Amino acid sequence: MSEIFVIVEHRLGETRDITFEMLWKAGELAQNLSHTVTAVILGHEVTSLVENISDRADKIITFDDERLKNFNADIYKEIISALIEESKPVLTLIGSTSWGMELAPCLSVKTDLPLATDCIDIIPKDNAFIAQRQMFNGKIFANVSFAKSEGCLLTIRAGVFSKDKIGDRKAEIIQKDFPAAGIPVKKSFIEFVETAAGDVDITQADLLISVGRGIGEEENISLIKELAEALGGVVSCSRPIVDKNWLPKYLQVGTSGKSVSPKVYIAVGISGAFQHMAGTSGAGVIIAVNKDPKAPIFRTADYGIVDDLFKIVPVLKDKVLEVKKG
Amino acid sequence: MDIVVCVKRVPLTEEVDLVIDEQKKGIKKDQLAFVLNDWDNYAIEEAIILKEKYGGEVIAVTVGNEDDEEVLRRSLAMGADRAIRVEAGDISRFDSFGISKILARVVKDLPHDLVFTGVLADDDNGGMVGMMMSEELKLNHSCMVTGIEIEDVKARTTSELEGGLGEASVVELPALITIQTGINEPRYVSILGIRKAAKKELKIINLADLGLSDEELSPKTIIEEVYLPPETEGAQMLAGDPETIASDFIEILTKKGVME
Amino acid sequence: MHHKIQPALEHYLGIPGFAITLFILLAGLALFFYIIYKRYVLLISAKPDLRFDSLWRRFYDLIIYGILQWRQPRYLWIGILHIMIFWGFVILALRSITLYGLGIKAEFILPFMGGLIGELYLFFKDIFEIIVLFACIAAILRRAISRPARYEFKHGKAHKFHAYLVLGLISFLMITDIAMDGSGILLGEKNAFWLPAANTAAYLFNGLGQNTLKLIFLWNYWLHILTLMVFLNYLPLGKHFHIITGLLNVFFRKLKKGSIKPPRWDIENIEDLDSLGVEKVEDFTWKHILDFYTCTECGRCSDNCPANTVGRPLSPMEVTLKVRDYAYQSNPLFNFKEKTDSKDQNLALIGKVLTPDEIWSCTTCGACEEECPVFIEYIDKMVDLRRYMVESGMIPKDFQDALLRFEKTGNPFGKPPSKRADWVNELDDVSVKILEEGDEVDVLYFVDSYASFDPQIQQVAMAIVKGLTKAEVKFGILGPRESDSAHQVRRLGEEGLFQFLVEENIETFKTCTFKQIVTTDPHAFNTLKNDYPGDLVVKHYTDYFLPLIESGRLKPTKLLDNEGIYTYHDPCYLGRHNGIYEAPRKILASIPGIQIVEMERNRDRSFCCGGGDINLWYDIEEEEMRMGEKRVAMAHEAGANVIVTACPFCLLNFDDAIKTSGLEGQMKVVDLMELLISTL
Predict the structure, then answer these.
(1) By the 8 A CB rule, do C646 and C675 touch?
(2) Which residue of chain C comes nearest to B78, CA vs CA?
(3) Across the strands, what pairs with C518?
(4) Cβ B33–C495 below 8 Å, yes or no?
(5) CA distance B198 to chain A (A)
(6) Model-level pTM?
């Protein structure tokens, strides 16, 4: 019986969803393989963070120190590598997030343990694990195994696993001290910044809600904007909308606009013309809303809703708001 | 301001339907066109911008065979001063661990105030080489950077976090920075420009000369199998009453990780 | 007419008349030649141009377009006015020389101007003086009262003062000469009742004393020759330089329509060039500099420019004038310092004088070049400016991506070449031969990228292939081995990439044998015919299919529905650039029962659809409406409900425009070949 480490990711006092997802998967693996789940929290004033996950882990190791107020990959690396050295967990899970992408590779080199990134599944095999991940921007799936070692590191893609609690646990809380010798800090955190609202770069968006000619009149675009706001996504559009000057050019998707690669592309009232869809080939999943069942977009989209957008979009928006509130 | 940029040549796969090769460990590449990795394009551009501002030398480095020199020439055409290719035979036998050790070894001997890599590569989407190199070289680092300002011997970087949030930090030079797309607008290099860049220095180093042991370079991760994602025949229609449709809709978004 | 009064013999403050004349003449000419010399120096510091070929043709064109002013009546009434003024000038030139002669030597006459010829000349001169005077007054009134829009500038103020000044000067010259003649008659010259102008003046002066008449005569004389010299020197300073350079510009016109000039006429390998394209004024060729000198500010180019019409920042006339003024500024006439390279000026040619959007706005449709009465060229200049912009990376990101896709996959979509002929599989009853090395056919059908990959245009390719099969033509396509014709790439300014793609295609052509190439697209047709080396035999499908219809091998028999009123839109690269106007019309007319109307702007006055060039990947923000929408409105106005076109880009642009104009259901667009096939 060994430990599965889950490095807790939190920001501004909130436990991020990826943490719950990793704990779920760790819990599942722990159950099937008779391992235990150890969560590792590095932070400052971590009481609420501990509470959030106290029923999802067998052990929670905490480091509570002012020097851990903001994420720093160097500090995390030093502390976690020492923990790994001490406990030799069979798996260490880190979120495949900006912070995780900075930490995990450094940790891998320091501990000399193998690393697989952006994993979408973990499959136990023999006495080891296979990591399932994607390549070529999602066009290829790959199963990766690890050279013999005393454990391995995986970064986990957000949104793949469930956020639910699995099993029934009550965590043993172990408080540890920040290393006495201190850790040299070579990168100083200054502040969080918000990206400018005006100049939106749709090519960087993870979620696009795109509007086409089906919207009819300019004022109806507010319907789409509301849905986007509820979802926390970005509004984009097809060419005719720009031609009419209803939306600015930098929101246009297509051959004469931009090529986008969001995780989800929601196309509302877009027929699916070749020149437009060419800009969406990088999209993960395309959901199309169109009242015409024969619209070409349904050939390229992954999911389709055949309905009058004026009827269904408000319903979608309300449901989203409902779910987010709860 | 001496900057080393690590670049990679990757297949252009946007419009293409990929085919798995016979061994099932990779894709068939004979019908594919190859380009400079998108992230690396931004990295080179950022390096050139800094060079134009602060002077110094920009060196482009890649690990690969003769065909891969194309991306070095493009980097030279954009403004890099010289380029290095590490001839390492069949590089598919290395994983990110090995590649980062090779690159780190090369960079160690080059003048570097900054080392740039792209955040990801278009092919393996690994995102590991940059940070692994920084650990090898014991360099300070900043990740997923969308903005760099040099202040004396420090760099003020803006890193991209999730949901439109960013993080501003200050890191002391020398540092390794992984560059995110959108940080700048890479300049265009014309065919003529690339032909003219052939006059700049492109040095070839043999892997054997770097003094790395086989053990150091042996892969820690092994690709067991690659396969195509499960087939979908046209759009899967969401059916039922609006409530049901809305629920299904939410489920799809959640699965894709966009219902933050 | 022999004058009793000899200006040469008069004395003023002790100075003899001939001395004054000589002074005016010599000083004036000296100044004039100095100015011309400075203008010449700028011209020869520019890049070489090859304009001394086809001399017979050039002389012929000089007569038609220069002497006979063939293009002037395209704007009818002002065209006629200008022809009158032009001929007036030609005829009055002899008179001017004679007048100077009279000022130097008494009783001076030009050889063979004595006797009947002389009298005949004086008659014509007199008539033309009236004509010119009235033409000038009409022109002044027209400018002042009806204020034609094309004289206005988009940016800044037009040089209206100069126009009025020159019209005034010309009128003044006419008046002084007539006054001279009039007073001359009353001073007892030979009776010349056949000179209406002179006699009218004489009538007006009747009753004045001899001394007064003499004064009138002399003063009008001196004023005349002084004004003439001032006028002469004024010419090279503004738009009236065209009086001197116009005929030269016509003589040196561009004969090979549709082609784009190589980056340098004197250096073949572009790798040997330090810089490509035009960065500063001296990078233009001498003919282009001559173009800048010759602009008459008539505005006909801008009036017909589709980019200008839809509100883009481009106005061809203003481009010419801005560069001209900039060139004059950088090469001042009187500068006692070292002449500086125009690049050292604070203003950058590209950036300040001309904006990038201005340069990208041009669709290379050729309407400007078709109108210009003095044959000023624009397309080559735009491409040369773009070449520089491409080399220095001043191009929008969307272009960059498109160019990269061209380079890597031979098509602008980034689709793999292996799929280029996949459309062939959609045809059930027709088989298309994909040519391998060593194959022999009569016709190589050059499909090009849009017809290969865009589903809408694939229909056109299928129609062409059906037509070829029905006519039992032995043909084939290159399929995956075909690269884009690179027409757009060249006109975008990426010369290196253009040469690369051309080389690829030429090498592929060499591997098979064929008698001629037939293209889907007028752009491919244009570039294969005019840009590619080697004198390929190329036809656009309209040109190819017409003889087949005329000879009966293809018979349109099925009647069309009576609801359709068809109008044919001339694509720029089929019509203006290559002169193919009638073949498509004949094909259309061969369809039984078809109702055809013509748009007001047809043939060489056709209005660009928006383009198969830059428009595809970059939108100029300042545009008020799309060119396609404007053209669709024109078709609608003409009473048509179907637009027929023979170009894939026109098809796509109009299809879009019909939807965005809200005319869906009322209008539609169809390709000529598809239409034809439906009737066979």
Answers:
(1) no
(2) C393
(3) C445, C539
(4) no
(5) 30
(6) 0.84
Rounded CA gap, C319 and C153, in Å? 11
| Tokens 């929670």 belong to residue | A60
- By CB atoms closer than 10 A (0-12, 13-18, 19+), residue A34 is exposed
- pLDDT at residue A228, rounded to an integer: 93
Q: What are the tens digits of pLDDT across the range B210-256?
A: 999 998 899 999 999 999 876 556 788 888 888 899 999 999 998 88
Tens-digit pLDDT profile for residues A278-303: 788 778 899 999 988 777 788 789 99
Three-state SS sequence of C496-565: HHHHHHHHHHHHHHHCCECCEEEECCHHHHHHHHHCCCCCCCEEEHHHHHHHHHHCCCCCCCCCCCCCCE
CA B54 and chain centroid, separation: 24
**CB nearest B15 (choices: C271, C390, C414):** C414
pLDDT-derived band of residue A196, with 50, 70 and 90 as boundaries? very low
H or E, element range at C455 = helix C455-470
Contacts of C390 in chain B (CB under 8 A): 188, 190
Q: Which helix (H) or strand (E) holds C329?
A: helix C316-330
> Do the Cβ atoms of C103 and C7 come closer than 8 Å?
yes
Which amino acid appears at position C63 of this protein?
Answer: I
Cβ within 8 Å of B, A 237-256: none
Q: CA geometry: angle at C234 spanning C230 and C240, to 5°? A: 130
Confidence of residue A274 (pLDDT cuts 50, 70, 90): low
Residue C59 neighbours by CB distance under 10 Å: 12
> Which of A104, A142, A231 has the CB atom closest to B223's CB atom?
A142
Token digits of residue A75: 């500090």
The two three-digit tokens of residue C333, written as one number: 């006439």
Interface membership of A128 toward B (CB under 8 Å) = no
Give the list of residues 6+ apart from residue A4 with CB closer than 8 angstroms, or none.
A26, A29, A30, A35, A36, A37, A38, A89, A90, A91, A92, A93
In angstroms, rounded to a whole number, what is the distance separating the alpha carbons of residues B68 and A273?
36
Q: Which residue of C has its CA nearest to A256?
A: C617
Q: In the prediction, which pLDDT does A198 show?
A: 45
CA-wise closest residue to A77 among A113, A51, A53, A50: A113
Q: The tokens 């019986």 sit on which residue?
A: A1
Q: Are strands C565-568 and C595-597 parallel, antiparallel or unpaired?
A: parallel
**Nearest residue in chain A measured CA to CA from B249:** A316
In chain A, which residue ranges form alpha helices assigned H by DSSP? 17-33, 47-53, 73-87, 98-111, 221-231, 239-243, 274-277, 297-300, 309-325
Cα C557 off chain centre by: 41
168-207 in chain A: CB under 8 A from chain B: 186-195, 201, 203-204, 206-207
Measured CA to CA, the distance from residue C120 to residue C113 in angstroms comes to: 9
Q: Is A134 helix (H, G, I), strand (E, B) or coil?
A: strand
Contact C659 A259 (CB under 8 A): no
What is the tens place of the pLDDT at every residue in C82-135?
999 999 888 888 888 888 888 888 777 777 777 788 888 888 888 999 999 999
Longest dimension (CA), chain A: 69
- Bridge-partner residues for A60, per DSSP? A39, A173
Judge whether residue B123 has pLDDT over 60: yes
Beta bridge partners of C668: C642
Cis peptide before B174 (omega within 30 of 0): yes
Confidence of residue C191 (pLDDT cuts 50, 70, 90): low
Nearest CA distance, A40 vs chain B (angstrom): 21
Nearest chain B CA: its distance from A226 CA (Å): 15
Q: Mind listing the pLDDT tens digit for each residue in B66-112?
A: 999 999 999 999 999 999 999 999 999 999 999 999 999 999 999 99
Compute the distance between CA of residue C551 and CA of residue C472 in angstroms, rounded to an integer: 13
Q: Is the ipTM of this complex over 0.90?
A: no
Round to whole Å and give the CA distance between A251 and C374.
Answer: 44
